[in-house]
Amino acid sequence: MKIIEINHLTKIYQAGDIQVRALDNIDLSFEQGEFAAVVGPSGSGKTTFLNMLGGLDKPDSGEIKVDGQSITSLKGSKLVNYRLQNIGFVFQSYNLIPVLSALENVELIMHLQGINKTERRKRAIELLEAVGLGDRLNSRPSKLSGGQQQRVAVARALASKPRFILADEPTANLDSVSAQTLLEIMEKLNKEENITFIFSTHDQRVVNRARRIITMEDGKIKSDETKI
Amino acid sequence: MIWSIAWKNIWRNKLRSMVVIIAIFLGMTGGIFSAAVMNGAAEQRVKDAIDYETSHIRISLPQFQEDLGQEFYITHSPELVSALSQMPWCKSACSRLKINAMANTAHASGPVQIIGVNPEEDQTVFAINKAICDTCGSWFEGTSKFPLVAGDKFCNKLKVRLKSKVVFSFQDQSGEITGSAPKVDGIFHISNNLFNEYRVFVPVSELATVTQLPMDAAHEIYVRLKSGKDLQMAKDLIQKALPGMLVQTWEEIDPSLGMISGLMDAMMMVFMSIILLALGFGIVNTMLMVVLERTRELGMLKAIGMTRRRIFNMIMLETLLLTVTGAVVGIGFSVFLVSYTGSTGIDLGNLSEGLEAAGYASFIYPSLNPMFFVELAVLVIITGISAALFPARRATRLNAAEAVRIEG
Ligand SMILES: Nc1ncnc2c1ncn2[C@@H]1O[C@H](COP(=O)(O)OP(=O)(O)OP(=O)(O)O)[C@@H](O)[C@H]1O
Ligand SMILES: [Mg+2]
Fold it and tell me: Ligand 1 site: residues with CB under 6 angstroms?
């Protein structure tokens, strides 16, 4: 089942008097349950692409449809609520609120969704156990390693039951062991729960785990390979 | 959950929040305490005026108050006094004669008002007998045949001591200049120096005799109430019973007294507003720094699904909590400080000359009306909300994509 459909997506940044085509007429689609990596050299447009998919930024032309509904036309709090209900985010850093424990960080997004306290607590504990942090529920982010923090972010992204999860260089700040662990967890969630992951990365070992590899260059899709 | 985040956020930068809270605390404590001292002084002034100068209600002939013409007196005053004393709301009543005179000694002279009193009766209404120190004689308990009780300021000016003779000259009923020469029997001191200088007391019988006024005459009858709350009711009743007479409450006798409390309230609020305004700017500044520092975090929250309204509310709440925390600590400590010094009193000894010249006591019991705290609480909330608006708006202006993009 197709969940994301991208048509003629273009984004041009104006840097002084130079125009940068960060995304240049991109056509792509994603199926339910994909585990896709977006790769490419620095400045090739990976972050810009994921931000468009996540509704964090507006294209100059083209359209993104999720489940047949155009998200490029959503605005303001409608757009924010759309993100809240449909998209899970894992950023490279600053994913978590430092004053909240791992558990509270995961609960927060469900609080924003209006889920009641008992239910959200139960789900937050389950998710943190699923990412292997069942014993660190009450730790604040500063007491967790970078890898553990990213796992909390994954649990948080899952908590809202999104249609898909976007992760922009989730392993960039991690050592290789932590990066492997994070990827294993994402892979497992993808296989067992059929969660759709789209992530960008520079890390070759991460790339190797992806089932679909989209390579970008100068805002264009250079190649799009799916392993069988 | 937003409440708990806001509260926890306050303690992220403990030093900075403590500085703000301490600033609010000091501002509030300083402001409230000064207000309490001013208010205590004003209340003391009113109380002293009632105790020594005006009592609660004064009855006289309207013509008398125009220029103290001594022929405008009330007759049958003892009957009136005893009738008033029977009233359930009346603690006591007394009658007085009041005559303008010149006082002369070998050294100096000056104008005074001689007040003729029944010493026993008068001290049930006024407390001048209590304003005479141990070594300053007494309220008409001495041995002189024609005693005088005068203020310390009067005695200094005319250079007289206890037992000294003072010569008074004034007009009698027929307009003839007459005089008397009583001896100082007691010297009082109250916090109003004008009173100390220009009011002297003699037995009413002596004064009536030299002025040839009837023995039952009174220029003024004073009423002290059991409770100040009955003031208006008592005044209306007396006025109804004595239609031709001028019945005045203490506020009407000395309008400046009535203004003191109103003026004081307004001044205290202006004073507190200025303090809070200054604090408000400090809070705005601090919260703008907070928002700036949290750009990425707020951007992340917006990205994952926190609407502008929620971000706005979160920063609003955080600012309000910070402000209210400082205010609660400040108000709490001030309540303690005001009630403590309110029971022990504070001595403004060095300032006493200036204060007493203006009619204020130098020993002050700070006090505040509970309404003051209610008004103050409203002001604090207004300050907190106003100070929060700008940083909270700033927080909502963040662009999620930009905020999460900043590398680091
Ligand atoms: N806000 C902006 N203003 C101007 N130019 C921008 C802006 N954001 C991105 N760009 C430009 O758009 C292009 C694509 O940037 P993008 O961040 O998407 O690349 P990337 O593939 O994520 O790179 P990296 O691997 O370094 O993260 C770059 O040339 C970048 O300089
Ligand atoms: Mg990038």
Answer: A 13, 15, 20, 22, 40, 42-48
The CATH code belonging to domain A2-226 is: 3.40.50.300
8 Å CB contact between B12 and B287? no
Q: How far apart are the first and last CA of chain B?
A: 28
User: What's A141's DSSP letter?
Assistant: G
Residues of chain A neighbouring B309 (CB-CB closer than 8 A): 77
pLDDT bracket for residue B169 (50, 70, 90) = very high
Residue B408 has pLDDT above 60, yes or no: no
Residue B257: name the closest of B36, B52, B98 by CA.
Answer: B52
**pLDDT at B85 > cutoff 90:** yes
CA B342 – CA B37 distance, rounded (Å): 9
Strand partners, B168: B103, B180
Q: What is the pLDDT at residue B350?
A: 66
pLDDT in tens, B280-296: 999 999 999 999 999 88
- B279 vs B282: CA distance, rounded Å: 5
Identity (one letter) of the amino acid at B48? D
Distance CA B347, CA B179 (A): 42
Q: Taking Cα atoms as reference points, which of B39, B27, B18 lies closest to residue B330?
A: B27
Ligand index nearest the alpha carbon of residue A38: 1
Quick check: B255 contacting A, CB < 8 Å? no
B338-390 pLDDT tens trace: 999 988 888 876 666 677 777 676 788 898 888 888 888 888 889 999 999 99
Give pTM, 2 decimals. Answer: 0.80
Show the DSSP H helices in chain A as ranges.
Answer: 46-53, 76-86, 102-113, 117-130, 146-159, 176-193, 204-209
A202/A219 Cα distance (integer angstroms): 16
Q: What is d(CA A46, CA A216) in angstroms, rounded to the nearest whole number?
A: 7
Interface predicted TM-score (ipTM) of this complex, two decimals = 0.93
pLDDT confidence of residue B406: 59
* Facing A81 at nearest CB: one of B5, B297, B307: B307
Q: Which residues of B touch A89 (CB under 8 A)?
A: 300, 303-304
Residues less than 5 Å from ion ligand 2, measured at CB: A 47
A18-24 average pLDDT score: 92
Other beta carbons within 10 angstroms of residue B397's beta carbon come to 10
Residue B57 exposure: Cα atoms within 13 Å on the Cβ side: 29
